[in-house]
Amino acid sequence: MRISAKSDYAIRAMAELAAGADAGAVKAEQISVAQDIPLNFLLGILRELRNSHLVRSQRGREGGYVLSRPASQITLADVIRAVDGPLANVRDLSLTELSYPGAAESLRDVWMAVRGSLREVLENVTVADLATGRLPKHVRALAERHQTERV
Question: Residue 67 forms beta bridges with which residues?
Fold first, then answer.
């Protein structure tokens, strides 16, 4: 799986909002500077996150963006789906629609396993986990196991 810049930026913006939740609304400019995200790109991402009901915008001098629900209830999968669509698909088809002939027949099962692995991590890590640095034990263990592997 390739994580797009849009997903990466969206998750980082959500973590920034979670970290600043007690202080109230956070301006897009603050997020942009804190996470080194181009402002115009960030504004488009925030619009998509708002359309997906993950953030709310507040107008006015004290305005900015806030999470629409507690950070502990927003998974990284929610954020990725909001800006990039499904976590894993092949040629924009549902994995259940795929079938392969001959020697590649079991490839559909491989793609299903890949999707399941992604979901196992991305649906179990919340924006709150990310913002506090307290990742679930199984995610931290996976990261440590793969820390020394080459891409």
Answer: 55
